[in-house]
Amino acid sequence: MSCDSVLPANTAKGRGNVENLILYQKFVDFVMWYEPIVERFPACQKPALCAATKNTCYRIMRMIIMTNKRRDKRSGLYEIDCELEVLRFYVRHAYKRRYLSKGSYETAVIKLGEVGKILGGLLKSENK
To answer: For the chain, what is the mean pLDDT?
Structure first.
């Protein structure tokens, strides 16, 4: 079983298109939801936590796209997993600094958890 197995069987855009990846879709959903929240962080955090969070999101998105194109996806999936852990740290840090409400924090944890579960399943299938 490979990463291609997370693609829908009948798609108008065809197999291998990154927009059809469940991991890609879930992460785009997270970024589209979280980015406006990050933009509301205090001005003093814009060049630090805000920029680091957004850059990590963009780096993960780039890694998802690049991993989809690779023949051996395992190393790319591990890299995504590491960056996802960094993003989780930034989310926890923002919550502890009270830049995130409890509700936003809980939603972020759920959304990143979904991404993590999909990623874990892909890693498990690649290791077989």
So the answer is: 88
